[in-house]
Amino acid sequence: MLPDAPQATSQSQAKDAQTKDAQTKDAQTRDVVTLRNTPRNLLRDQEAIWTSPARLNESNAVGPVLLVLATTAAVTTDHQVMSSSKLENTSLNNHASTASNGLVGGFLVAPGIFYGLGAMHHDEHATETGILGGEAILDALAVSEVMKLVSLRERPTIDGARGKFFQSSVGTNSSFPSNHSMIAWSSAAVIASEYGGPLTQITAYGLAAGVSATRVMARQHFPSDVLVGSAVGWMIGRYVVHRHRHE
Predict the structure, then answer these.
(1) What angle do CA 141, 81, 96 make, to 5 degrees?
(2) 173 and 228 in contact (C-beta within 8 Å)?
(3) Is residue 230 a contact partner of residue 176, using CB atoms and an 8 Å limit?
(4) Distance between terminal CA atoms of the chain?
């Protein structure tokens, strides 16, 4: 019986290797960046996003901890910032609102443009950027809406910009976090990650920062609203790229 042992071991190792190869191929198939796979990927994204706190440890908790501290500091100064006479300017508010809507509109259509150009020129990289950009935006919106329903924060234009949380009267018009910022930063993160040149990154993140700034200038959001929206949107965009991008 002893001579048969090496052969049995070899067969077992071969089967294990085949199983691992099959699992790897199956995972690659599931993660292929296509429009068809996007709904499934979105569900997997949401599961990973909402369970991410359970995976925090000493090596990856620095960012979230800093965000919590920065948000806490921002919330304590929100009322003072929004009560500034410089922001109580109807003309400035209107122009800033128009600018923020225009900029975020650009980030919303960017995935479609990348996808369309990629399809026209058979550019898989551009096509992938378009799909992942759209996926990141949808992920960001889903997270933002849940956070809004939980926070129920008043807008800066209500009650002297006190920004009170958990106000049932707010309904679906919660201020925290900023949807515009979430959309802009999630889309920008995908574009900047897929096309990592300095000019692309400066442009993408610069325009996203413009969205965040103009939301405050328009008196539509408090600084803490756009801070959290920007940070969470960026993290979601980066996650989507690194989870699904074809290397």
Answers:
(1) 55
(2) no
(3) no
(4) 47
Rounded to the nearest angstrom, the gap between the alpha carbon of residue 183 and the centroid of all alpha carbons in its chain is 7
d(CA 160, CA 145): 24
4-28: burial string, b at 16+ Cβ within 10 Å, e else:
eeeeeeeeeeeeeeeeeeeeeeeee
Low-confidence ranges of the chain (pLDDT < 50): 1-2, 5, 8, 19, 22-30
Q: How far apart are CA 144 and CA 183, in angstroms?
A: 9
Angle at 97 between CA 225 and CA 156, to 5 degrees: 40
Please state, as a whole number, how many other Cβ atoms lie within 10 Å of the Cβ of residue 170.
20
Q: What is the DSSP letter of 30?
A: H
Q: Which two tokens stand for residue 216?
A: 């405050």
Tell me what pLDDT residue 25 has: 44
Indicate the DSSP class of residue 173. Answer: -
In angstroms, rounded to a whole number, what is the distance separating the alpha carbons of residues 244 and 173? 33
Rg of the chain's alpha carbons, rounded to an integer? Answer: 23
Q: Are 188 and 111 in contact (CB under 8 A)?
A: no
Specify the amino acid at residue 90.
Answer: T
